[in-house]
Amino acid sequence: EAEVAQSPRYKITEKSQAVAFWCDPISGHATLYWYRQILGQGPELLVQFQDESVVDDSQLPKDRFSAERLKGVDSTLKIQPAELGDSAMYLCASSLAWTEETQYFGPGTRLLVL
Amino acid sequence: GDSVTQMEGPVTLSEEAFLTINCTYTATGYPSLFWYVQYPGEGLQLLLKATKADDKGSNKGFEATYRKETTSFHLEKGSVQVSDSAVYFCALSGPTNAGKSTFGDGTTLTVKP
Fold first, then answer.
1. Cross-chain residue pair A100–B99, CB shorter than 8 Å
2. Cα distances (Å, whole numbers) of residue B22 to A40, A69, B12, B90
3. Residues above pLDDT 70, as percent of chain A
4. N or C: less crowded end of chain A, CB within 10 Å?
């Protein structure tokens, strides 16, 4: 069964350092999402791509976060510089299209900022 | 804006007990409603969904009915198993952007043998 891949699974970094997370969606899925999940809370959408274009990044802290999906396939989420409050699980999900409601989630990257 | 409110947890039950996890929502228009489950160390998995009022979603013994009049989508299971222990998230997606989901804060369920 096709799955969404994410790496790394765990990342420990010091504040002010740069970190990057990678996501490979299910093949053929045009829409890709990055979520942040703080411990004890539900996922919060950071950015949504349709192919290589950003559909929604209204909740992305653009002063330190950036996301790209250059070829409309895999995607990278970057934080620079990392802050203590960025410690969270970062989840990637994909769907066939932005009109498709069912999303498939990857295992996530757990980030700890010291 | 859209929001989802789940009953606070954690919930601890004995095996074969009846489960209810409450979920209410606030949204513009008529959203689709979802329940996701997250097992330890894993991402979210779609458990069930309903796309219009009075629809019942069901999967693996779990059920939830879309109640427009009470803006609710409560999750139920008649007999829980130890393997059902996980975190359960209620979510909605709105008609203007079908893929943009709003999640509740999750309810942790622990089932004891």
1. yes
2. 17, 37, 15, 9
3. 97
4. N
